[in-house]
Amino acid sequence: MTTHFSTLLTKTEHQTFKPFKTQISQSNNKKSKKMSLFLLLALLLLPFITPSSQSSIRNLLEARGLPGGLFPDNVESYSLDVKTGELEVQLQNPCFARFENRVYFDSVIKANLSYGGLVGLQGLTQEELFLWLPVKGIAVNDSSSGLVLFDIGVAHKQISRSLFEDPPVCYPPGSIMEKIEKRKMDIQLQR
């Protein structure tokens, strides 16, 4: 035979527990409202508190003696293993950009970051005379020279540092803007 707890209580005891239950319920409700308000406030302020991925990757590169605009404007996130120097940059999508020539960024770019250089670069190719060549490294050997050195395997190309001051606008493959940029390059090569 099962008896419920409420049947064991006398009428007076029932009345004593009722306000206690209400008090607990009201207390939990207040805590819940405070927590909800706190979470809402945190979500609203979060964009102002955390730096964007683009500005933080820019700061990281500049702190390591490289120009801040090496990566495009659609950086989603990045990670850096401080022990090994391994840098991984995640983009929102693969895209085309332009420095001196057109370049193509994969959605993930990896390299070993050291002071003044990105070595063992993967995920970046550059167009040279209708050929797409992988960029294997980027270096700034002498910051006073105003030059950035691109290692494209078969050669080293010197590019003005001023082209890398701001992150390039990056266009997804097949977009109308990417086609316009390609057409501009084709016209310049024909001249």
TrEMBL record:
One Pfam family hit: DUF538
InterPro entries on file: At5g01610-like (IPR036758), DUF538 (IPR007493)
Annotated protein name in UniProt: (rape) hypothetical protein
Organism: Brassica napus (Rape)
